[in-house]
Amino acid sequence: MMDGVEVGRVNVAARACGISIRAFELAVAYAQQRETFGKPIAQHQAIAFQLAEMAIKVEAAHQMMVNAARLKDAGQRNDVEAGMAKVIASEYCAEVTTQSFRIHGGYGYSKEYEIERLMREAPFLLIGEGTSEIQKTIISRGLLKEYKLKG
């Protein structure tokens, strides 16, 4: 049973990574096209810093998801790693998608822009295969078992 749960958590992490990557790509493209005060908004420090933060989150979540998937492919138990990947990927997905939505401004509400759909999809990943709180319970139990004091 745990095998299926672990695969499901890695799957949710992978879906969250995909949405995050796409939301990031949309934000970067839009920020280079949209102009304010005579220059693309990507050249404003506030937007540039948001893009940098988004890229960091996308990369970190992706690396953790790949690690969990590799462990599962190798036939190892990965309940802790799958839980950690699911937490970081789903939480960062919600954050990155929201940042992208905000960069799009009012256009983010328009069905003509893909970010509108991503904003509807991202929140589900926070609860699919167990909430972050449930994952943290599983992670902490696994860590306490792994790092149990001897004596």
Automatic annotation (TrEMBL):
Keywords: Flavoprotein. It comes from the Bacteria. The keyword Lyase does not apply. InterPro entries: AcylCo_DH-like_C, AcylCo_DH/oxidase_C. The keyword Transcription does not apply. Residues 2-144 form the Acyl-CoA dehydrogenase/oxidase C-terminal domain. This is Acyl-CoA dehydrogenase family protein. It comes from Blastococcus brunescens.
